[in-house]
Amino acid sequence: MPKVGIVMGSDSDLKVMSKAAATLEKFGIDYEMTIISAHRMPDVFFDWAKAAEGKGIKVIIAGAGMAAHLPGMCAALFPMPVIGIPMSGKNLEGMDALYSIVQMPPGIPVATVAIDGGMNAAILAAKMLAMSDPELLEKLKVYSAEMKETVQAKADRLAEVGYEEYLKEK
Q1: What is the reported pLDDT for 78?
Q2: CB 142 within 8 A of CB 47
Q3: Of the four, 51, 75, 112, 163, which is 20 to 30 A from 104 by CA?
Q4: Half-sphere exposure of 20 (CA within 13 A, CB side)
């Protein structure tokens, strides 16, 4: 049973949304992924968002560009958390989508991550789910420790060889 619903308005969003899926897989979180345009197929979108809770979805990750109505409409219809991912675009480099997602009216919150922030959206969803899942919380703690070790190893290497050699190694 999926715990996270991943929805995007276009297959052009799949490169970013696949990062969310891959991250959820890393933590062993079930998800479903689909493409639904809130503007081009509002009836299908409405049915999907209204049915999400009944399918066991606890968090929706919605990616959208330009006017970015998908995350907000998910939040209007789905009673649990929605995380919006603003997609970079060719015209305004994702700023239009970012502003659209963060400027929700009172009572319709959407958590928002960075432009093209698929990985962070999945980590945020995992943290939300971990509030009632001690095993998942432990996985997140291990993940944080691994990130710390990775950065420390880089700092140690930089101190050992200096910045010029470090850059050559990259």
Answers
A1: 97
A2: no
A3: 51
A4: 34
Instruction: Write out pLDDT tens, residues 25-82.
Output: 999 999 999 999 989 999 999 999 999 999 999 999 999 988 889 999 999 999 999 9
Distances (CA, A) of 166 to 130, 148, 153: 38, 19, 12
pTM: 0.94
Angle between helices 14-26 and 118-130 (to 10 degrees): 40
Structure-token pair, residue 159: 């101190």
Cite the beta strand spans of 9-124 per DSSP E. Answer: 31-35, 59-64, 82-86, 111-112
Counting DSSP H helices and E strands in the chain, the numbers are 6, 5
